[in-house]
Amino acid sequence: MKTPLIRSKKLSALNCCNVWLKMESSQVTGSFKERSIGHACTQYAKQGAKKFISSSGGNAGIAVAYIGHQLNIPVTVIVPKTTSKTAIELMRKDHAEVIVHGDSWLEANELALSYVTEENIYIHPFDDPYLWEGISTIVDEIINDGVTPDAIVLSIGGGSLLSGIQHGLKKHKLNIPVYAVETEGTASLNTAMQKKQHITLDKVTGIATTLAAKKICKHAFDLSQQEQIVGVTVSDLDALKACFEFLDDHRTLVEPACGAALSVLYDQKVEFSHLSDVLVIVCGGATTSLNHLLDLSKDLSFNPKKSL
């Protein structure tokens, strides 16, 4: 679904340039995953898929369940024990079979792969060229709406959003920097970039659970070595504060994974005043709620009322 592109008065004033928000949070499933997963599922359906198998702790699983239901193809999603009840309920509302297994996505994914056959097609949450093709349409829409960005800011977990945006930029022959933002506890890309090796983190921690991939997909790592990818890390508190500020300024609830990217603009962590147009991908927040953010605030000893 085409999503709104809006100019943020608050973030534009703070950063002395035009800050544009691509509102992927307005997708039916609440995140950009609907765009990527939707394209992949549609392509596999054309190839004869009889069932979709996936592994996810949140947005990807919700998107597979929704798209499978739209295509009238049954879905099984394997989720780790850390998956929220809200995410599981959203998957089941679209008639997906949800199996809880393992302490991490890697363990859930191993079980998911054991269900795959010629007709039971595996839908990877972030590592598939079909996903990147679907995401590339974000860039198509931005250009068609009359905005040619000088830089893009986005959050990165497994790497599909970065891969898809780069695919779109290449399609339109745009050679601009992309700021890839992670929280300090989920910095698989930034760590790999520093070491110049496609490494796996020993563990991932923190509140941005949908960014919690121990290893970035190989394609995203390769792009970080070849293109203008700038790694940025922010704290959990930075990400959470940005969620509340964005809710106050734009009346839109997003999850901490999305707040991570927004915090770069709210806290002016990067100097953008020399640019005309900066695009931020508001990637989503289907699995979060105001009560959840308030609970996180207590855990981090943060009072949102005093900060806004």
Describe the fold and architecture:
This protein has helices spanning 9-15, 33-46, 59-71, 85-93, 105-114, 129-144, 160-171, 188-195, 218-226, 236-250, 256-266, 290-299, 304-307, and strands at 5-7, 18-23, 51-55, 75-79, 97-100, 120-123, 151-155, 178-183, 229-234, 277-282. The protein has 308 residues and is an alpha/beta fold. It folds into two domains: 5-31 and 132-307, Rossmann fold (3-Layer(aba) Sandwich); 33-123, 3-Layer(aba) Sandwich (Rossmann fold), CATH 3.40.50. The strands form two sheets. A six-stranded mixed beta sheet has the order 1-2-10-7-8-9, with helices on both faces. Strands 5-4-3-6 form a four-stranded parallel beta sheet, with helices on both faces. Helix 2 (33-46) crosses helix 3 and helix 3 (59-71) packs parallel to helix 4. The longest helix is centred in the middle third of the chain and has 16 residues, at 129-144. The protein starts with a strand and ends with a helix. The model has no long low-confidence stretch (mean pLDDT 94).
By CATH reckoning, the class of the largest domain would read Alpha Beta
Q: Any idea what the shape is?
A: globular
Helix content: 40-55%
Could you say how many structural domains there are in total? Answer: 2
End-to-end Cα distance: 33 Å
Secondary-structure element order, as H and E? EHEHEHEHEHEHEHEHHEHHEHH
**What is the radius of gyration computed over CA atoms, rounded to a whole number of angstroms?**
18 Å
> Structural class of the helix and strand makeup?
alpha/beta
**What is the mean pLDDT?**
94
The CATH architecture of the largest domain can be named as 3-Layer(aba) Sandwich
Uncertain regions: pLDDT < 50 for 5+ in a row?
none
CATH topology name of the largest domain, in short, is: Rossmann fold
Cofactor: pyridoxal 5'-phosphate
Keywords: Lyase, Pyridoxal phosphate
Organism: Acinetobacter boissieri
Pfam families: PALP
